[in-house]
Amino acid sequence: MIGGLFIYNHKGEVLISRVYRDDIGRNAVDAFRVNVIHARQQVRSPVTNIARTSFFHVKRSNIWLAAVTKQNVNAAMVFEFLYKMCDVMAAYFGKISEENIKNNFVLIYELLDEILDFGYPQNSETGALKTFITQQGIKSQTKEEQSQITSQVTGQIGWRREGIKYRRNELFLDVLESVNLLMSPQGQVLSAHVSGRVVMKSYLSGMPECKFGMNDKIVIEKQGKGTADETSKRCLRQESCGKQSIAIDDCTFHQCVRLSKFDSERSISFIPPDGEFELMRYRTTKDIILPFRVIPLVREVGRTKLEVKVVIKSNFKPSLLAQKIEVRIPTPLNTSGVQVICMKGKAKYKASENAIVWKIKRMAGMKESQISAEIELLPTNDKKKWARPPISMNFEVPFAPSGLKVRYLKVFEPKLNYSDHDVIKWVRYIGRSGIYETRC
Amino acid sequence: MPYLGSEDVVKELKKALCNPHIQADRLRYRNVIQRVIRYMTQGLDMSGVFMEMVKASATVDIVQKKLVYLYMCTYAPLKPDLALLAINTLCKDCSDPNPMVRGLALRSMCSLRMPGVQEYIQQPILNGLRDKASYVRRVAVLGCAKMHNLHGDSEVDGALVNELYSLLRDQDPIVVVNCLRSLEEILKQEGGVVINKPIAHHLLNRMSKLDQWGQAEVLNFLLRYQPRSEEELFDILNLLDSFLKSSSPGVVMGATKLFLILAKMFPHVQTDVLVRVKGPLLAACSSESRELCFVALCHVRQILHSLPGHFSSHYKKFFCSYSEPHYIKLQKVEVLCELVNDENVQQVLEELRGYCTDVSADFAQAAIFAIGGIARTYTDQCVQILTELLGLRQEHITTEIQPES
């Protein structure tokens, strides 16, 4: 399994080093530093093989985490473990930075002992870990606390303990999506997909049963099946309501969701962990609402000038506002000067990045904005034809580009005296751009 | 590595650890110990304070205990005679009423790599295997493997192996998985743990109770089980089908591997298996996480080597976005090269052609090499493209094309 785990800062100095197997020596620590951290090229492959030893690494801000092994391991699992390690550390002390690691190295060694015994991943659920590894150290526990901890660490429902109480029962649902697009110069979508996650923060008492409903196509179609009369009535109703459903390509759920119920009735029912957790992850590739359409027009005037005009159209409800919009228009390497005109937002030519960066703070739906630029080129003998990189965009929109809508989240806790209506529920949708490129 | 001034540091810390005022104040005591550990991490030789650290292990503060044990495990090989003194405290802690302390002490004792420790570990481990707290059992099970590791080529203890096999039926899922791992290490000479029919079925039935690490491990162990009948094979495939869609990428990859190996053993289910496996694998190839994307692409390449032509209709998924990292783009180009067929050759070549004029010379060359590869089957189109590229008269492109022709 994992023979050793090392954490380095940006200079390559070792902050944490834990060796689990005899076949990994101190020179492995140095090998990684020399061959990966101080390597010549900018971007390194996440897996490096040096002298029959495999190094898997992940980078968080400027901290390197490396797992080392000499055995044939499941690579996806090693990376998943490194991510989990980062999540657990972040849950304890926030951002993963050199300072935080140095201040909490005792805690990190405790965690490494607990979650990676002899190089094998053990229990890594943050909720369980937090009950017996605290930063202040455990004061001598009463017998009751002791049994509670051991039962949670080994209990039937490992992700939630009994007896949680809140005065105000609240839950927050965040639908976080990332829309990715690759568009051809002619405006044809080459590939587009949305990857999303539903994150739930629940502050509910007891052991509540929750049911989550969204506008899943399959569910709506199932509901549509009934007698012929009913079906026709429903169809009419659906048309008049303009119900939009989404076809999910694949989705994965948190451990707490009962998969058998999902398979049979397509209903998502679960007992949630306390606090924040990721309920589901999904991907769609059909019927995606592309929030922005980029229309580029590039004209070469002789060999010394390039005229570029880019129009962006926002494609969503006029009442919604997109934010943090940034359009990057790449410029050739032999650019001498750029004149830019834009009515909205601010545009600047950044020579170091070889791009014109156009930033718009806010833009409402169904609007259009335009930027035109005249790029002066230095005459070059180099006959190298400039392969135009695509125009990329960044933005944030307050709706789900996949079309996903949360229809309900019902809470049942029969043993305590609060009902579904007493729970305060909040939903918000955040759609961000992932890789959103339009070739030109 | 000699560090200047380390002897002074050791002296200072020794004084601090012996100071009764500091010993009385729990927080200050712990701080001094933390400093020792910090220097130890940085590479300074802290073995000089071994005696004082041994004395510090007799405490009720669990965090302090953990620190001291960490220290001892690091330096025990260097000071074996002193470490034996520490074993007393550890043995006592192995019978502490608090299961956390018992587990911690047992784990630390098993990590003491020094000769002569085996006679002291045997009994605590055996007690640990039968402990009522599952936390301690987990540690004890892995402790068996650690113990075996220390001895190297000593004989395998038959009674212990039997006990571990019976613990495969334990209530606690992590104990079960640790047993598998332990047995695998102990029985390495004989080919690892034996997965016979009752064990395989037992594991399959408990899969849903395991966490993602356990599931990935069990899927790996199931590779060595061969189903005896058609019915059994289909039962297994149906049961494990849901794991192909697990939220854990490690489990998805593990399940994919198992399915493909079963398909090799029973070729008539190959088409069915490939259909089930394709979706999750393609989804992983466009994962948000770069590392997992890279891993998935490597797997797809492997599959295409032995089963060519399978992802041909999904060629668009392997088109490169400009801002993707280099290592992912290289993998995608290789994949595109392998999944070319009559229907998609035109579009794939168009796309690769675009990459040949990329800013990065490495990537451009990889794209040209790929076109060269495709040229073996679709000579005309490729030659046309390559000739056009030669016309651009760019050095790095020309040098790559010439060996092709």
TrEMBL record, chain B:
<keyword id="KW-0813">Transport</keyword>
<dbReference type="InterPro" id="IPR002553">
    <property type="entry name" value="Clathrin/coatomer_adapt-like_N"/>
</dbReference>
<dbReference type="InterPro" id="IPR016024">
    <property type="entry name" value="ARM-type_fold"/>
</dbReference>
<dbReference type="GO" id="GO:0012505">
    <property type="term" value="C:endomembrane system"/>
</dbReference>
<keyword id="KW-0653">Protein transport</keyword>
<feature type="domain" description="Clathrin/coatomer adaptor adaptin-like N-terminal">
    <location>
        <begin position="11"/>
        <end position="401"/>
    </location>
</feature>
<protein>
    <submittedName>
        <fullName>Adaptor related protein complex 4 subunit beta 1</fullName>
    </submittedName>
</protein>
<dbReference type="GO" id="GO:0016192">
    <property type="term" value="P:vesicle-mediated transport"/>
</dbReference>
<keyword id="KW-0472">Membrane</keyword>
<dbReference type="GO" id="GO:0030117">
    <property type="term" value="C:membrane coat"/>
</dbReference>
<dbReference type="InterPro" id="IPR026739">
    <property type="entry name" value="AP_beta"/>
</dbReference>
<comment type="similarity">
    <text>Belongs to the adaptor complexes large subunit family.</text>
</comment>
<dbReference type="InterPro" id="IPR011989">
    <property type="entry name" value="ARM-like"/>
</dbReference>
<dbReference type="Pfam" id="PF01602">
    <property type="entry name" value="Adaptin_N"/>
</dbReference>
<dbReference type="GO" id="GO:0006886">
    <property type="term" value="P:intracellular protein transport"/>
</dbReference>
